[in-house]
């Protein structure tokens, strides 16, 4: 009797009235939000503006989902296009089946489009979101737990995963490879964050480190899985993919460090519209100050002229005799006329 094991959910769907909430899709959505949240924080720390990561993710995420599904369907085509299978199931992404290799490849195309529209270098953006992608994978792997899929070989370890009988699976206790990969991805995220702070990685090297570290773990985890897969020279296809991508990622780190050492100083150039707005604001402020100074000077001049005119009128009034007051000559003439 097995006293310790990890139980599997009895169902991967929770129905809220007419709305089904699927555990697999829920994990993918949470992973995307975590990746965007952490990527945004890292982007701002690198000198970018808030919201840029989310704007580019609008392009990257849909492309990534399509790429992940395409990779899965192409490499496991027998599940959908062989005799007795329904090809329509290839579109049922909620039932599981996303290849990380295709998701990263086509997601990078979407990110490139978004970066190009914003005038942002793709390597800098990739460095910012690399740890977030690893955490998104860690969360997304729990979707496999809901679907009771992608487990490993039989085991009697205390953390064995209990699988119930179902389509294309036998009941028993197996290695929880979904858990192994989830924990590995958390470690990859922490490694990239530490290395980026310690060595100031730039020009895509933080992203390449994430890729290399993930592939190193995916290789041995993939080797433990027992689900159906294509084999080349005795190794599963995904093991070979992990080896090839690992070598390419390490090569990129070495070559990039020699060709473009250091880190980008500017990751998000200011837009011409923002610069023009700042200049207009500055000119408006200066113009307002100049207008105020001119108006003040004119008012002072007018006041000075008015004071001068007032002084002149006062002097003139003092010099002229008051109306009706006789002058000296007038008094003398009046006296002479009366004696005649």
UniProtKB/TrEMBL annotation:
One of its GO terms (biological process) is lipoprotein biosynthetic process. Its EC number is 2.5.1.145. GO terms for molecular function: phosphatidylglycerol-prolipoprotein diacylglyceryl transferase activity. The chain crosses the membrane at residues 23-40, 52-74, 94-115, 178-195, 207-225, 237-255. Keywords: Cell membrane, Membrane, Transferase, Transmembrane, Transmembrane helix. It is a multi-pass membrane protein. A 1,2-diacyl-sn-glycero-3-phospho-(1'-sn-glycerol) binds at residue 141. Residues 264-340 are annotated as: Disordered. It is an enzyme of class 2 (transferase). Pathway: Protein modification; lipoprotein biosynthesis (diacylglyceryl transfer). Catalyzes the transfer of the diacylglyceryl group from phosphatidylglycerol to the sulfhydryl group of the N-terminal cysteine of a prolipoprotein, the first step in the formation of mature lipoproteins. Belongs to the Lgt family. This is Phosphatidylglycerol--prolipoprotein diacylglyceryl transferase.
